[in-house]
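Hi V.,

Quick status before I head out on leave. The structure for the redesign project is tokenized and pasted below; the design run finished overnight.
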């Protein structure tokens, strides 16, 4: 019987790019930084869910890039700390580099968000749900 995975463990695994079910470093294919495994090689959890489900990861990536990189550059240009030309160059570089750097974490964070709200969908928690844990009747 698999051990139950708590929400705290799901968050910790999501922040460290690990499988939300088993904790293995198996989200991405080795040597291929931008290719998510369709399922975890260790526990078999389907990582590539329905088509379009990772639109959320893309939105998360975009939001973090906009708020964490582009907005500060715009504010610095507005107050004259950066020239418009410098701000434009930095924004252009940031708009390309930051999303690339956040690709893997945003995929992991989106999985984390899904399973934090629906922990009973993890295979490790399925046995607990079948054993009659309260509130899990509809899984």
């Amino acid at each position: 019987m698999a051990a139950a995975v708590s929400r705290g463990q799901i968050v910790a695994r999501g922040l460290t790019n690990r499988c939300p079910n088993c904790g293995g470093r198996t989200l991405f294919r080795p040597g291929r930084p931008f290719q998510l495994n369709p399922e975890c090689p260790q526990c078999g959890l389907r990582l590539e869910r329905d088509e379009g489900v990772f639109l959320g990861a893309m939105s998360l990536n975009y939001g973090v890039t906009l708020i964490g990189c582009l907005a500060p550059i715009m504010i610095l240009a507005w107050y004259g700390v950066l020239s418009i030309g410098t701000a434009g160059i930095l924004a252009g570089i940031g708009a390309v580099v930051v999303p690339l750097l956040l690709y893997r974490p945003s995929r992991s964070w989106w999985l984390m968000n899904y399973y934090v709200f629906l922990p009973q969908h993890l295979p490790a928690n399925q046995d607990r749900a079948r054993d009659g844990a309260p509130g899990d009747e509809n899984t």
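Above is the designed sequence. Helices lie at 7-15, 55-78, 84-117, 123-130.

G. will cover questions while I'm gone.

Best,
W.
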